[in-house]
Amino acid sequence: MTDTTDVTGATAPRRSPLHDEHVALGATLTPFAGWEMPLRYTGDLAEHLAVRTAAGLFDLSHMGEIEVDGPQAAAALDYALVGNLTALAVGRARYTMICDEHGGVIDDLVVYRLADERYMIVANASNVGVVVPALLERFAGFDVTLTDASLTTALIAVQGPAAEAIVVSVTEPRDVGAVTALRYYASTNATVSEIPALVARTGYTGEDGFELFVPAELAPALWRDLLLAGAPSGMIAAGLSARDSLRLEAGMPLYGNELDRTTTPYDAGLGRVVRLDKARPDGTPVDFVGRDALAARHGSEPARVLVGLQGLGRRAARHGYPVVGGTADGAPEVGHVTSGAPSPTLGYPVAMAYVTPEVSGVGTELAVDVRGRREPVRVVALPFYRRPDKA
Q: Which position has the higher pLDDT, 301 or 28?
């Protein structure tokens, strides 16, 4: 990966270790969270549908990988994050958050427990520069070491119904059983295309799939081998645009849209990740940053609720569009759209939005102001899409 400076002194976006692979595939590249990443290759619709019907290959090397080691690693993470990481078993992963003292979300994270005293945190690319200093501050006084491995680690994802068969086809035979036995949100070390990898059954698309963490310098060879192995199954490379439409259909939040420092986990309907009951073996409650503020919010009705909206017309709602109480003139504004797009899988527009509690019930008819025109929508349960074996 490179981080260059142009003649004006401005810092250019970092490049993925797979940059040359993307160029060779004709990808449209775009700045994203300080990186230059592939937006699309063949086309948004084709890439989206490939993931739903076969598989897609994603470069996620812009994500941050933060390693936490030491005899007090679990205790340090219990204090720093809202989840109970002491209770996480070795080989499992957990979705959690780091919040500020007011309960606002600094970032949503996935934490992998790799050994008794070793964890890896995966943070959003746009927040690595905030999460690392926050963790270092919170780890003060704990016997723990933090290493930011973001620039030495590449992350490649294979997502879709054919993902397991594709990954297994390039996995060392002695490791195949461990890979196929992985449950959702579990990981194992395996040799894939003769490359040592942490293979995790995780993803951000609503499909079965795997995320492979490998040394950055070895990533191009793995990428090429996976593309070749997946071609007979219909797998193609997929970019950020397809990843966003897939996660939206799956009702998964995006930091900066559904989550930010003005949002608590309870606002986003994710209060389950907050473990107010964390306790030491002797029963003493475990304090963590933001606990008092979150405890005060627990059980109370939030001022706004995150809901799914099904578009009843043809025009899609987009981030920031106002939600109003109906199509009639004078209907009051009741919220705003956080994410929205046409759904390639379902065939109609979908959106997520924060609305006031009294209009958040499933079946409620509302409208979205789409550039001055009120488009009818209906509140529906999230997620919009569940893969057939989970429906």
A: 28
**What residue type is 244 in one-letter code?**
D
> What percentage of the chain exceeds 90 in pLDDT?
91
Do residues 335 and 356 lie in contact, with contact meaning Cβ atoms separated by under 8 Å? yes
**CA of 126: how far to CAs of 102, 131, 173, 270, in Å?**
21, 10, 37, 21
The mean pLDDT of the chain is 95
Question: Quick one: pLDDT at residue 391?
Answer: 64
State which H helix or E strand residue 136 sits in: helix 128-138
Q: Which of 10-14, 199-203, 317-321, 342-346 has the lowest mean pLDDT?
A: 10-14
What is residue 12's predicted lDDT score, i.e. its pLDDT?
83
Tokens of 308: 């799914």
User: What's phi and psi for 15, nearest 5 deg?
Assistant: -110, 140
CB atoms < 10 A from the CB of 345, how many? 17
Give the distance, in angstroms, between the CA of residue 14 and the centroid of all CA atoms in the same chain: 20
- Residue 121: what residue type? I
- Ordered domains of the chain (ranges, CATH): 14-60+152-249 (3.30.1360.120), 64-148 (3.30.70.1400), 302-388 (2.40.30.110)
Q: How far is residue 124's CA from residue 192's CA, in Å, rounded to a whole number?
A: 25
Contacts 24+ apart (CB under 8 A), 31-39: 32/62, 32/125, 32/240, 33/62, 33/124, 33/125, 33/126, 34/62, 34/125, 34/126, 35/62, 35/125, 36/12, 37/62, 37/239, 37/240, 38/237, 38/239, 38/240, 39/239, 39/240, 39/241
- Mean pLDDT in residue range 113-124: 98
Tokens of 119: 């964890």
Element (H, E) at 46: helix 44-53
Mean pLDDT for 313-332 is: 93
Query: On the CB side of 169, how many CA atoms lie within 13 Å of its CA?
Result: 15
pLDDT score for 267: 93
